[in-house]
Specification:
126 residues, 0% helix, 4-stranded antiparallel β-sheet, 7-stranded mixed β-sheet, mainly beta, single chain, 11 strands
Length: 126
């Protein structure tokens, strides 16, 4: 059974930083592309960042480029999202996701992900 458990969310002031973690189990993590998505109140869930199974390639939403960094530690079955220069517009529930198959390229579409975490709340105050 695949499990994705996010942690690291919380309340932070604008301009601050947070690092989200997602611990994965029940899948061959080192062969699986991973992604982060977020859903703000009243909005649809949107892509934030993704990383190839090897860690060699990443992709970001335009709104977070230059501020957020996705990384992974295949030895720890964990993917991270370092978030810097946070703004109130970054307030959302952040979800970790694992791709449907193994290997493959960097994935940005929700339907390409088969497994989802429960989400972690990030709130940025102004």
């Amino acid at each position: 059974q695949v499990q994705l458990v996010e942690s690291g969310g919380g309340l932070v002031q604008a301009g601050g930083s947070l690092r989200l973690s997602c611990a994965a189990s029940g899948l061959t993590f080192s062969r699986t592309g991973m992604g982060w998505f977020r859903q703000a109140p009243g909005k649809e869930r949107e892509f934030v960042a993704s990383i190839k199974w090897s860690g060699g390639s990443t992709d970001y939403a335009d709104s977070v480029k230059g501020r957020f960094t996705i990384s992974r530690d295949n030895a720890k079955n964990t993917v991270y999202l370092q978030m810097n220069s946070l703004t109130p517009e970054d307030t959302a529930v952040y979800y970790c996701a694992a791709a449907r198959g193994t290997f493959g390229s960097v994935l940005v579409r929700q339907y390409e992900y088969a497994y989802w975490g429960q989400g972690t709340q990030v709130t940025v105050s102004s």
